[in-house]
Amino acid sequence: MKILPALAALLCPVLASAEPSRAEVAAAMKKAAQFFQAKAASHGGYVFYYSLDFAGRWGEGVATAEQIFVQPPGTPTVGLALLRAHAATGDAFFLEAARAAAEALVFGQLESGGWAQAIDFDPTGAKAGQYRNGKARGKNVSSLDDGTTQVALSFLMRVDRALAFKHAGIHEAAEFARRSLLAAQHRNGGFPQSWSGPTAEYPAVQATFPDYDWRVENRIKNYWDMPTLNDGLCGTVARTLEDGWEIYRDEKCSAALLSLGDFLRLAQLPEPQPAWAQQYDHAMRPIWARKFEPPAVVGRESQDALRTLLHVHRFSGEAKYLEPVPRALAWLRRSLLPEGKLARFYELKTNQPLYMTAAYELTHDPAHAPKHYGWTSESKLDALERDFAKAKAGKLKAPSAKKPEATRVTAILAALDAEGRWVSTAPVKDLTGQPKFADGMKFLASEVFTENLTTLADWLVGE
Question: pTM of the entire structure?
Answer without folding.
Answer: 0.94
